[in-house]
Structures are given as structure tokens and as C-alpha cells.
Design brief:
The complex is a heterodimer.
Chain A lengths: L2 H19 L22 H15 L3 H4 L9 H11 L5
Chain B lengths: L3 E4 L1 H5 L16 H12 L3 E6 L3 H11 L5 E4 L4 H11 L7 E4 L3 H10 L4 E3 L1 H6 L13 H4 L1 H18 L3 H7 L3 E6 L5 H10 L12 H9 L3 E10 L2 E12 L17 E9 L8 H15 L4 E7 L5 H9 L14 E7 L11 E3 L1
Parallel strand pairs in B: 1-2, 1-4, 2-3, 4-5, 6-12, 9-10
Antiparallel strand pairs in B: 6-7, 7-8, 8-9, 10-11
Classes of the chains: A mainly alpha, B alpha/beta.
Chain lengths: ~90, ~350
């Protein structure tokens, strides 16, 4: 996986985050920001919507593949998780 | 169980086509109007999805006298309309039925949303006799359900305008979460929650009132209720947890000398109305603190890992609980746990403990 690929995914994720939370300022969220708790402060509802959008867009089912959902720690970890699973797809 | 029925208007709720009837739109179908009210009295929501202008929905509301929890009027696909209704009400597709006289509409919804129960108007007329539409208990919360969803719409509109963080909004909205011991009067609602909750249910199996009465009476278990209200309305009893271990006082009685080092939570369940309002996060934060008060060093929450309760797993992860992937049992159960030393999850100051 290339760094361009990961950062392209991260950009799309920022769009999804802004959409599921209704907070456009998240379009500028840095890769290292934590998605839950202090940071973006996603709740389980917005988190579930994000997981669904990721599945629709990339065919990657984070909930099925990651028991502890650690992939959702930061925007960067999620982008890397997705990019690693859709190599050659794009 | 079906929690929401999405109705078409033309030749379904109306005995004719709204836009083709000139100045005098058709009257409501009398039989289906009866079904609308019967379902509402059982706590089942009604919604509209129609290829008509919004005025048609207002006309149906006036003709039938029914409340609709969501209305989608427009010319795009019914499957999209139903998906938006489901998302807006935080319902899973298999909790939704769709009624339309048009075979093509039914086929499109059946193909794109295979979990939705798709019915013809004739089938819908019989639906009140079917088990999916017949909740065993009808609680005060159920009878108020369409009002609760109306309050929810006002709250969501206010939240969308608010623009700051969720916690700021919860504070601004006067959110009040009350955690306290369950009593015998709570049994019907606890039973109902155990049947109706899926997205926020850790055990994934229903409990009868007798099961729950047994747990309430058993000294080794504590049954805890969670109530939710804010300035928009009172949602009543929205959730519960059962705890055991370390004397099982659940922090609600005087601490008992520790007999084990862990508090286990065999069940957490919460209404999907509480989704997005910080209630499960607050309950988990409180469970950590009450386990500490009981002298436990670890909190353990067994959870059925399924596609449906992803929101539950997200809340567990956010509260710092983890499960060993290799430990997931054949039936999909895994024990999520966390140490109670170090920093505990944040407990908002709008939580009251009774």
C-alpha cells in the first residue's frame, strides 16, 4: 500500500466523518486525532454510521474484521486498515 | 418484532391517487386507518414514504388522525426513503415493514433491503393478528412511543443547529440520566427492553418477566435501571444492567467485603432512543466506579459479538474494554474486560445515582 493511497482514503474518511456527525469542521481533522473520547468525540451511533459507510465505499467490514474496533482509534489507523485491505482494488 | 410500518399513500392509505383526483382528494382507506391506530396503540410506529408532494402527507395525517414518526415525500426510490427513515429512527431494517400496492415498488424494496418485511395492503390489513406485530407486553413507554419520537425530532433538529460537540449539546439540553436499583414495578418494561433491544444489547437473548423477577430476588445479582430525560421530554426507563461478583452490591448498597476481584455484568441493554445521547457511555463509566467501590480490580462484560450490536461493541471499546480475539466462543460470545486501576471513563455531572 502506498502512502498516497492511505492519504486518499483518509481524505475521503474526513468527508464521511463530517457527514455522519454534521460537523463540517472535521474536514480539517488531522490524521492523528482520536475518533472516540477526547478528540473527535464520536459516539456509538455516529461510529456505526461511519462503519456502514466504510463498508459501502470500500467493501471493508471493520466490525467483522476487528473484534475490539482498534482500527477506529484515529483517522490514520482507520485509513491504513482500509488501504491494507483494498490493495489492487483501485 | 416490527417496530415501524412504512406506508405508501396512493391506493394504500388513500382509496385512490392523491394527485389524480382534482380538487377533492380521495378519502382514507377505512380498514387500513384502523390498522394504523391499532398498531400505534401497541407502540408500533407508523411512517410515510410516498411519491407525492409533502401536502399529501399532511392530508393523510388529517384524514386518518394518525401520527407519523417520519415522512418521506419525493420522487426518488422507496428503498432510499426507507433507509433514511430507519436511520432517522435508529432502527435496523428487520424492525421495519413496508406496505405498498405497487408490485414494482415492493420488488425494489425487497431486492435492496432484504431484511424489510414487504407487504401488500391486503396483507397489512391482517398484520395486527401476526406475531411480529403483537408485542407481549405494552408498557407506558410503548403507548407514549410516537410522542417520544416527536420529542426526538425536535431534539435532533436542535442538535443539528447547535454545531458544537455532543456533550455540549447534552448539557445545553438539560440531559438528566438517573441510575438506580430496579424494583418489581420495572419488570414489564425490563422484559420489553430485553425483547426490543438489539443494537445496544450485550447478551442477545430475551428474558421473561419470571427470569427477571428471579434475578431481582437473587442476592448474588443486582439489577440496575437507567432513566433518561431532558428539556425536550422524558424518555422514562431506557436501559438496564445486571451485575454480579464482589458482593454484587452494584455500588448501590454498602460495600461488602470482596469475595472476588472482578465485577461481571451479564447483561446491558438500552433502548435505541438513547443512542447518540451518551447514556450507555455514562452507564459504563458508572459501572467502573461502582465496581471500584465494591473493591473489584476488574470489570468484565460478556458480549455476544454480532452484526447487530456493533454500537454496543463501540461503546465497550470507548470505555476501554477489550476482548482476546482467540477467546471468542463458537456461539459468538466474548468477554470484554478492563482493569479498574488508572484513569476511568468520564462520568458526566448530569448523572444522578439513586
Amino acid at each position: 500500500m502506498s502512502t498516497e493511497q492511505v492519504s486518499a482514503v483518509a481524505d475521503e474518511l474526513r468527508g464521511m466523518l463530517a457527514q455522519v456527525t454534521g460537523r463540517p469542521e472535521l474536514l480539517g481533522a488531522p490524521d492523528g486525532v482520536r475518533l472516540f473520547g477526547a478528540g473527535v468525540g464520536l459516539d456509538s451511533l455516529a461510529g456505526t454510521l461511519l462503519i456502514r459507510q466504510v463498508q459501502r465505499r470500500y467493501g471493508v467490514d471493520v466490525a467483522a474484521e476487528d473484534l475490539n474496533l482498534d482500527a477506529l482509534e484515529t483517522l490514520g489507523t482507520l485509513a491504513a486498515f482500509i488501504a491494507a485491505r483494498c490493495q489492487g482494488a483501485s | 418484532m416490527i417496530k415501524c410500518v412504512v406506508w405508501d399513500i396512493d391506493n394504500t392509505l388513500l382509496a385512490g391517487v392523491y394527485l389524480e383526483s382534482g380538487a377533492e382528494p380521495p378519502a382514507a382507506d377505512r380498514q387500513l386507518t384502523g390498522v394504523l391506530h391499532q398498531l400505534a396503540a401497541r407502540g408500533i410506529l407508523n411512517a410515510l414514504a410516498s411519491r407525492n408532494p409533502p401536502a399529501a402527507a399532511a392530508y393523510v395525517r388529517q384524514q386518518t388522525g394518525a401520527d407519523f414518526a417520519a415522512v418521506e415525500c419525493g420522487w426518488e426510490s422507496k428503498a432510499d426513503a426507507i433507509a433514511r427513515i430507519a436511520a432517522g429512527l435508529s432502527l435496523a431494517p428487520d424492525a421495519i415493514a413496508f406496505v405498498d400496492d405497487d408490485m414494482l415498488e415492493r420488488a425494489e424494496v425487497a431486492a435492496r433491503l432484504p431484511d424489510v418485511l414487504v407487504l401488500t395492503p391486503d396483507e397489512a390489513a391482517e398484520a395486527p393478528d401476526w406475531p411480529q406485530f403483537s408485542p407481549a407486553v405494552i408498557t407506558a413507554e410503548a403507548r407514549r412511543r410516537s410522542q417520544l419520537y416527536a420529542e426526538r425530532r425536535h431534539r435532533q433538529a436542535a442538535a443539528a443547529q447547535f454545531g458544537r460537540s455532543r456533550d455540549d449539546f447534552l448539557r445545553q439540553a438539560g440531559t438528566r440520566i438517573t441510575i438506580g436499583p430496579a424494583g418489581p414495578g420495572d419488570l414489564p418494561r425490563l422484559h420489553e427492553l430485553s425483547i426490543r433491544t438489539h443494537q445496544l444489547n450485550s447478551a442477545g437473548r430475551p428474558l421473561t418477566q419470571a427470569d427477571l423477577a428471579g434475578l431481582l430476588a437473587a442476592p448474588e445479582y443486582t439489577v440496575i435501571t437507567v432513566r433518561l430525560a431532558d428539556d425536550f421530554g422524558d424518555d422514562g426507563l431506557v436501559g438496564a444492567a445486571i451485575t454480579t461478583g464482589n458482593g454484587a452490591s452494584g455500588g448501590l448498597a454498602a460495600p461488602v467485603p470482596a469475595v472476588s476481584v472482578a465485577v461481571t455484568v451479564p447483561l446491558i441493554m438500552m433502548s435505541c432512543r438513547a443512542l447518540g445521547r451518551g447514556v450507555l457511555d455514562a452507564l459504563l463509566a458508572w459501572l467502573c466506579r461502582s465496581a471500584v467501590a465494591d473493591g473489584a480490580a476488574e470489570l468484565r462484560i460478556p458480549c455476544l459479538v454480532s452484526e447487530r450490536n456493533v454500537p454496543m461493541r463501540l461503546a465497550l471499546a470507548t470505555a476501554g474494554l477489550r476482548a482476546e480475539p482467540a477467546s471468542v466462543a463458537a456461539d459468538g460470545r466474548a468477554v470484554f474486560s478492563r482493569s479498574l486501576t488508572g484513569e476511568l471513563p468520564w462520568l458526566p455531572d448530569w448523572v444522578t445515582v439513586e
